[in-house]
Every structure is written in C-alpha cells, then in structure tokens.
Amino acid sequence: QVQLVESGGGLVQAGGSLRLSCVASGRTFLWYAMGWFRQAPGKEREFVAAISWTGSNTYYADSVKGRFAISRDNARNTVYLQMNSLIPEDTAVYYCAADRGITATTEIDEYDFWGQGTQVTVSS
C-alpha cells in the first residue's frame, strides 16, 4: 500500500503560478511511476502529467504542455507539479496517483493508488 497526500492548491488569478506537492508513504516510493490528474465539476477525471520512477521520462496532456512541469524527489518521497500561466480552465481538483509499473503512463486505469485531491481555482 502507498498513501498519498497532496498539498499546495488554492485560489490564484489567471496568469499566476502554483506548485502542488504529493508526499508518499508506505511501500517504496522509488519503484512507482507517478501521475497527476484533475477533475473539474461535471467532468470526468483527466490525465495531466506523469513521470517515470527515475524521473527521466515525463508526459503531459496537450492542454498543459509548456505550462506545467512534473518532477520528483525520491529522497523525499515527493512528486511535484509546477503550474505556470494558469487559466480558468485549469480549475479542478488535482489528484496525485501512483502506478506500480515503473514506466510512466497516461492511462488512468493503470494507477493503483490515489490521494484525496487538492482544489485549484483560477479566477479570471
């Protein structure tokens, strides 16, 4: 089992930045690929970004490419999502997830463990 706790969400104006953090505990964090997903009101949960266990491979949704950056610090059991140039359409609950496969994936069904989420609200 892996427990995931997100933090760093909040209210920000359009054009601003936020950095989300996700701290993992339990089984060895090093052996998990990690991902960020988001869910806006009335919409399905969607992929945002993913990173392999080494951090050498990253993937992004087209909607966030060039604005968001995923990274990880295995010594701190933490994965980050740096979000820049935020727009109102980025408003959602953001979830951190862990995949027991060590290569990163964009497929939501591949993820085995989920955090409770953190709210991000971007005002226009």
**Overall mean confidence score, pLDDT:** 94
Question: Termini separation (Å)?
Answer: 40 Å
Number of strands: 11
Helix tally?
A: 0
Helix and strand succession?
EEEEEEEEEEE
Rg over alpha carbons? 13 Å
Low-pLDDT sequence parts: none
Strand portion: over 45%
Structural class by SSE content? mainly beta
Largest sheet: 7 strands, mixed
- What is the helical fraction, as a range of percent? under 10%
Instruction: Tell the overall outline.
Output: globular
Structure characterization notes:
The protein is mostly beta strands. It has no helices and eleven strands. The strands form two sheets. Strands 2, 4, 5, 6, 9, 10 and 11 form a seven-stranded mixed β-sheet that branches. β4 and β5 (46-51) form a beta hairpin. It is globular, with a radius of gyration of 13 Å. It starts with a strand and ends with a strand. The mean pLDDT is 94.
